[in-house]
Amino acid sequence: MAHNVVERNNVTIIGEGEIPIVFAHGFGCDQNMWRFITPALKENFKIILFDYVGSGNSDISAYKTNRYCSLEGYVQDVLDIIHALDLDEVIFVGHSVSSIIGALASIEEPQKFEHLIMIGPSPCYLNDPPEYFGGFDRSTIEELLQLMEKNYIGWAEFFAPEMMKNEDKPELTEELEESFCSTDPVIAHQFAKTTFLADNREDLSEIEVPVLIIQCEDDSIAPLHVGKYVHAQINESTFEVLPTNGHCPHMTDPELTIEAIDNYLEPNLATS
Fold it and tell me: Rounded to whole angstroms, how far apart are CA atoms 181 and 267?
């Protein structure tokens, strides 16, 4: 089982420390997106990187539509890895949709998690006026999903710069676009549908472990007010706003992201 999961999810383990920190990539990405963050943590942590089934260099033959038609399939990927590596007191760092995937995993097995770190989380991308504005009307999401089906490369060319939002770093936008295009379009469309139509607002209050929310000042995918909403709904959470743009600060502004993680973990780990 352990061997199969490690291969299935292309698990990579680095670092000299004993404290396990699991990094989970967002939609359309893979574990390589964490490469600007991990060197700063290698000395003190046991770093676990992986690709969700259907992403990166995972075993694509393990992809089953009925498993990954909801976020629960991705939650199971996370729990499978934690069990296969026999991890406890996990610090889970999730980007974008993985913030919610990690939250759901922690609700299912809270004893396995010590902290959650959410980068650009959104429990619901759809607007639900007048109480909630996730940033997207349903018609906009449906148009994006239709574009993915009809012209996947065109969708990638449109969505990558919107997500990265750092025109002065075109190489990162190109990398993200290439990552989108390297994913099987059918799998990517299903993951997008699962991500952008999900509504996990009611789950936030069930999170039992402490949470750090890292939010960019200007993020059109997960706007600032969404981060504030997540913070308000979680019993024990810290909210850190980075003075930067886009949805991928771990790539565009790794120093700021590392500083936010360090500032949060150092006092918390010292008292744990």
Answer: 41
Residues 39 and 186: beta-carbon distance below 8 Å: no
The angle subtended at Cα 205 by Cα 133 and Cα 245, nearest 5°, is: 45
For residue 107, the tally of other CB atoms under 10 A from its CB is 18
Can you tell me which residue has the tokens 């990517």? 188
Residue 230, amino acid: V
**Matching residue, tokens 């694509």:** 60
Q: What is the number of alpha carbons within 13 Å of residue 165 lying toward its C-beta?
A: 18
Residue numbers annotated as active site: 96, 219, 247
User: Which position has the token pair 């960019």?
Assistant: 216
Q: 2-271 has which fold?
A: Rossmann fold (3.40.50)
Every domain of the chain and the residues it spans: 2-271
Phi and psi based region of residue 54 (left: phi greater than 0; alpha: psi -120 to 50; beta: remaining): left
Alpha-carbon distances, residue 60 vs 20, 32, 96, 241 (angstroms): 26, 17, 22, 36
Buried residues in 244-272 as b, exposed as e (16+ CB within 10 A): bbbbbbbbbbbebbbebbeebbeeeeeee
Instruction: Note down pLDDT in tens along the chain; length 272 residues.
Output: 556 999 999 999 999 999 999 999 999 889 999 999 999 999 999 999 999 999 999 999 999 999 999 999 999 999 999 999 999 999 999 999 999 999 999 999 999 999 999 999 999 999 999 999 999 999 999 999 999 989 988 888 888 888 898 888 889 888 888 888 788 888 999 999 999 999 999 999 999 999 999 999 999 999 999 999 999 999 999 999 999 999 999 999 999 999 999 999 988 665 55
